[in-house]
Amino acid sequence: MVAKLTSSGWIIALWGSSGAGDGQFAVPVGCAVDTQHNLYVVDHGNHRVQKFNSSGLFLGKWGSAGSGDGQFSSPQGIAIDNAGRIYVADSGNDRIQVFDESGNFLAKWGASGTGDGQFAVPKGVAVDDPGAIYVLDANNNRVQKFGWSISVQQSSWAMTKSLYR
């Protein structure tokens, strides 16, 4: 279930129930809000992301169980950058996936391991105003910081540095 609160902590709306249908959840674990005030919820047990407007109206979903592009294995964290890109910590696949606001797959990075740019159960992701991406690499006991670099021919991810090893 999702609860919308006032700045004083009063509940003003509730939506969702247990299940696998639209607007239902199986362990919702993370959420993020875009510049249009849409809410994106990581639905861990259903291996997907669901999108709602600020009133709780279901707008769409993407993802399914698996390891392909746009598929998830127990996703946990979500963040949105200033350009509207949505980052999802795909915990069971040890990677970060990136989508547009409609759920179209854009990019991914990461693999299982302990090296730079590798993950062992990434559980959280955050983006700062300048656009750096921070990934909570839980089982490696660290936070990794990444930057987005764009060239004329392709988009690629570059790790800028690892923090807190």
Describe the SSE topology.
Blueprint: E1 2-5, E2 11-15, E3 17-18, E4 24-25, E5 28-33, E6 39-43, E7 48-52, E8 58-62, E9 77-80, E10 86-90, E11 95-99, E12 105-109, E13 122-127, E14 133-137, E15 142-150, E16 155-163
Parallel strand pairs: 3-4
Antiparallel strand pairs: 1-2, 5-6, 6-7, 7-8, 9-10, 10-11, 11-12, 13-14, 14-15, 15-16
Plain-language structure description:
The relative contact order is 0.12. A hairpin with a 5-residue loop joins strand 13 and strand 14. This protein is mostly beta strands. About 5% of the residues have low confidence. The strands form 5 sheets. The protein has a 4-stranded antiparallel β-sheet with strand order 5-6-7-8, with no helix packed on it. Strands 9-10-11-12 form a 4-stranded antiparallel β-sheet, with no helix packed on it. Strands 13-14-15-16 form a 4-stranded antiparallel β-sheet, with no helix packed on it. The chain is globular. The protein contains no helices and 16 strands. 0% of the residues lie in helices and 50% in strands.
